Amino acid sequence: MAQDTRRGILTGMRTSSFLFLLFVAMPIAEIALFLRVSESVGWGSTILFVIMTALIGAALVSRQSRGAWRKVQATFAQGEIPTKEITHGGMILVSGALLVTPGFITDTIGFLLLVPGVREVLRRLGARMLKNRFEVRTIGGPFAQPGNPFGGVRPEDESDGGPPDVIDL
Q: How far is the C-alpha of 90 from the C-alpha of 83, rounded, in Å?
């Protein structure tokens, strides 16, 4: 039992460390990099560069998100669940958020997420990491069938001759 508690604490520490890096260390690193770059090329050029990366990034995200949406629709049309396409779309969305956030580090990560090969590597890595963390359960029981996940008698089989979708009180 003590081992389970320690495992939970370690998991919480990993999450809190990540959040610390995300909300405290990342802005500090971005500010330090802004100062360093502005010393080299000047404030005007630094600000212009940040604005240009946001505009270029927004255009690329818009274009790629339309393509991702078409892939989701095509996969649905084939009768499949578009998990891969939705994951790529989510990474494109995160990329857009990072690209409009001022900063060189966030822009670099954002542009990397726009590369399909990088997204696919991250998707596979994430799938491998999450593979055994979830348990899939279905509703129903031993009598559940396709089209009738609850098992037993189908509602349309219980018809009393009245019009469908009418509730008698």
A: 10
Among 92, 110, 94, which residue's Cα sits nearest to residue 54? 110
Q: What are 106-128's pLDDT values in tens digits?
A: 999 999 999 999 999 999 998 88
CB count in 10 Å sphere of residue 154:
12
How far apart, in whole angstroms, are the C-alpha atoms of residue 144 and residue 43? Answer: 66
**Residue 13 amino acid letter:** M
Q: In the block, which residue shows the tokens 């001022």? A: 102
Beta-bridge mates of residue 148? 145
Sketch the domain layout of the chain as residue ranges: 2-129
Please provide residue 76's backbone torsions phi and psi, each rounded to the nearest 5 degrees: -60, -40
Environment class of 125 (CB within 10 Å of its CB; exposed 0-12, middle 13-18, buried 19+)? exposed
The answer to whether the pTM exceeds 0.70 is no
pLDDT digits (tens, 9 = 90+) for 68-98: 999 999 998 888 888 899 999 999 999 999 9
